[in-house]
Amino acid sequence: MIPAAFDYQKVRTVEEAIAALAGGGKILAGGHSLIPAMKLRLNRPPKLVDIAGISDLKGIKEEDREIVIGATATHAEIANDKHIKDNFPFFAEGTALIGDMQVRNHGTIGGSIAHADPAADWPALVLAADAVIEVQGSKGKRRIKSTDFFTGLFSTALEDDEIITAIRIPVPSNGAKTTYQKFAQPASRFAIVGCAVMRFADGKTNIAFTGVSENVFRAGRAEKVVSGNPLNDASIAAAVGAALQGVSILSDHYASEEYRSHLAKVYLKKALLAVG
Ligand code: FAD
Fold first, then answer.
1. Which domains does the chain have, with CATH numbers?
2. How much is the pTM?
């Protein structure tokens, strides 16, 4: 449980962080995923680049009809923010369910989505909200749609020297409803199944799952069934029947494939009833 030796550099700007990553360094944000992985020697970065002091990466604001969440905003800050509670109540609902108080006070949204743990809550929440991930690296800045960001188990579209700087989400028109329903592993609180749903005023419905498969995913077939249509017993049953078609379901010592698949259906039904 002792990490391999590493260098440590605290940086004050994004540019300084990008330069410091050259040669195989790794970003350190809240440290609540990276440090445990280093202690288990699953990860042995030669250098940690601590971004906690970069003021440009902090805070939550509204800008041009988008909510912009700085990459180092903590789970707890997001859960308590007025913009978030007003526009994306499921972010507050979901973050309040992450781990324990210490994890919520130190863990960051940027760290969570960069880590791309298949059981983490944020990936499903940002996918369901149509968020865009703003990143910066040695080749400049770019924006990545959340639907293109998560590429597999613990892997993302980030290049080695790219840093997530912010998460941008369009403010929905009045009448949008959101929910996050999670069946949590009782010790860690990671999702055995997490289902995030955002239903817009025009009926367009985004459905994202975490915990169910090796990668977080949008349940496109279920979305088609309910988008623009009334939510009733028949449409919900059809969406539940369609949601996992073609999805490879995880099986581990927490939940078998059959049990996890059952949970995913139950939690999707709960979520659709909650936004109906
Ligand atoms: P770090 O650990 O600092 O970094 C994680 C990874 O992301 C590293 O590879 C790092 O290099 C990279 N990274 C960090 N920030 C950036 C950035 N801005 N740009 C590019 N790369 C970056 N999570 C849940 O979702 N649900 C839970 O219920 C839950 N329970 C937990 C319980 C415990 C006991 C613990 C220890 C953790 C738990 N977590 C849970 C994980 C927690 O939310 C982590 O804090 C989070 O996943 C990672 O955020 P971090 O800021 O700590 O990132």
1. 7-50 (3.30.43.10), 58-170 (3.30.465.10), 177-275 (3.30.390.50)
2. 0.97
